[in-house]
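# step 3/5: fold
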Amino acid sequence: MGITGKPSRAIFVNWRGYLFAIGLVAVATWFKYLAQPKIIPTDVPILYILAIVLTATFFGFGPSILCCFLSLAAYDFFFLPPIHTFTFNIEVVPISLVFFSVGVLISYLSSNLRKKTQEAKKEIAVRKHSEAELIQYREHLEDLVKQRTAELEKANLELNNEIAEHKKDEEALQKAHEELEARIQERTKELAEVNRTLQVEISEHKQSRKMIEIEKQRFDDVLESLPVYVVLLAPDYHVPFANRFFRERFGESHGKRCFEYLFHRTEPCEICETYTVLKKHLPHHWEWVGPDHHNYDIFDFPFTDVDGSPLIMEVGIDVTEQKRAQESLSKARAELEIRVHERTRELSETRDYLDNLFNYANAPIIVWNPDFEITRFNHAFERLTGRAADEVLGGTLDLLFPDDSHDESMMHIREATSGERWEVVEIPIKHKDGTVRLLLWNSANLYAQDGKTVIATIAQGQDITERKKAEQLKDEFIGLVSHELRTPMTVITGSLRTAMSEGISLEDKEILLENAIEGAGSLSAILENLLELSRYQADRLQIHTGTVNIPDIANSVIERLKDRSEDRTFLSDFPHKLPLVQADSVRVERILYNLIENAVKYSPEKSVIKVFARKDKKMVVIGVTDKGTGISSEDQGRIFELFERLGKSRSQGLGLGLVVCKRLVEAQGGQIWVESEPGKGSTFYFTLPMNGKMA
C-alpha cells in the first residue's frame, strides 16, 4: 500500500516560483500604474502585498523573498517621488522597512503553512504505511503465538506423561518398601523363633541369617540403583543412611548433621519440613531446593530402626528440568501476553489518532473505492453537504454533484481512480438543501501490495465559493467604476474641447463650461463616495465631531443641486428650535448630498423633493422625501448593500451612494432606513445624536 507522488517536479516548480514572482510583480506594477491614484492611493502597496501572499502560498519562502525585494524596488521606482528613480530618503525609509518587514513576515508564515501542510500529508502517508506494517506484524505475531502455544501444549503433555511415570515408579517403590517391611517383619519373627530354638536348630539359624544377609544386600542394591535419593534421618539430624544418588549429589556426611555438611550451618534450616513427620507421625510431601540448586520433590515417611529408635525415611526426586520447563513456559506465556497487549494497544492508539486526524481536519476529506462508493466521510464534509456520514457511506459519489456539472465531475473522479493524481481541480459540491459550493480538490491513490492496483482514492477540498464571489464582485466593481468615471469625463472633455473650438459664441461657451463644471461635480461626487467607502473598509474612517446645524447644511446642498435640477421643486421644512447635532459636518453634507441626489435621479420631472427634520428623544431625525416610483419591500432590504441600484431607472450609477450613507450614519452613532410604497414615492430617514443646543 502506498501513495504515489512526483518528487522530480520539485526543482522545476521552484524555478517556476521565481519566474512567477517576477511576473506577478510586473503585473501588480502594471495594474497599480493604471489604477493609481483613481482607485488605489499611491501610498498603499496592497497589490504588492497580494503578490507576496500568492507567491509564498504557491511556491514557498524563496520566491516570496524575491517578490518582496522586487515589489519594494518597483514601488520605490514607479510610485514614490521622485518617480522613475531609486531613492531611499528619510521619509521613505520607514514605510519601506514596514512594507519589507510585512512582506518577509507574510512570506515566512505562508511558506511555513505550505511546508506544514506538505509535512502533514507526508506524515499521514507514513502513518498509514506504518499501520499496514503493524497489521501485517500483528498477523505474523498471532501465527507465531499459535505455533508456540502448540509447542508448549505438546511439551506440557510430555511433562505430564513423565510425571505420571514418576508417580508409577514412586508407587512401585512404595510397594517394594511395604513388601520389604513385611518380609523383614516375617524374618524377624522367624529369627525370634530360631533364637528360642537356637540350641536345637543352630543350622537353621545360620541359614536364616545368611538369607537375611542376601535380602539386605538385594535391598541395598535396589536403593543404590534408584534414580532418586533415599536417606534415613535421625531425630538429632544425623544421617545414618544415604544411597548412592544422595552421596554423589551431596557427598558423605562423615558423622556431621545434615544442616552442617549440606549448608554449613550451625543450626537447623528454618524452611525444612522433614521433621514434621516426627511431630505428626504421618507421611509428608513437599518441595526442596538443595545445595546444588536443584529442585526436589520430597516424600517423608515415619520409619523405625531395628533397635526401635524413630527415624525418617526421605525420598527425593529431582524435578529441576520439569521446573525449568514449567518456568520457561510460564515466562514465555507471560512475555507473549505482554507483547500482544502492548502491540494491540499501540495499534489501537495509532488507529484512534489517525481517525481523529481524519475526522476533525478543517478541510473536507472523502475516500472512495474503485466502484465510486464512499468509504470515509469526515465532519468537515458533513458540514459542507449537510449530510451525516451514515447517510452517504456505501453510497455512490453521484449524490454529491449538481446535475449541470455531474458528468464533468465524474470524469475527474474516473481520472483520479485510474491512477491520475489531482494537483488542483475545481469540482462543485451540492448541499442537501440544494445550494452549491465550489471547491479546489487534490487527491492521492492508495494501492494494494503489488503497488499497481488502486484500492481507494482520498481527496481533500478547499472551499473557494466566497473567493469566487469576491473576484466576480471585484470585476463588476471595476467595470462599473470605469463606466461611471467615463461618463462625466466624456462630458468634461467634450465640453472643454468644444468651448475651445473656433466660432463658438460666448453664450455657448458659458453653457459648455457649465456642463463641464456639472460633469466635474458628478465626478467629484463619485470619487468622494469611493474614498469614503475605501476609508471605511480599510478601517481608516476618521470622524471629527462638532456642533452641526442641519438646516444650514441641507440648504447648502439644495443650492448646489438646484442648478442641475431646475425642473424639480425643493422644499425644506425645519422647526424653529431644532436642536443642533453632534456630528462631522463634512460627512453630514455627504449624506444629505447622496440622499437628495438620489431623490433627483429617481423622481419624475416637475415633482417636489422635501427635506425635513424633527426631534425624537435624544436624536434628531432627518428625512428626504420624493414622489418617485417607490421601492418594493423586497428591494428595501437590499438598497443599502454594495452595488445595489434603485430599480431599473434610466439613471444608473455605482450603487455606492446609499452604502456610503449607511456607513457614515452608523459611524456617527445613528441609524438609516427607508419607508416606501411602489407608485407613491419614498422617504429616507437617518438619525444623529443631539448636541443639546438649539439652532
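# step 4/5: annotate
The longest helix spans residues 93-196.
# step 5/5: archive (pending)
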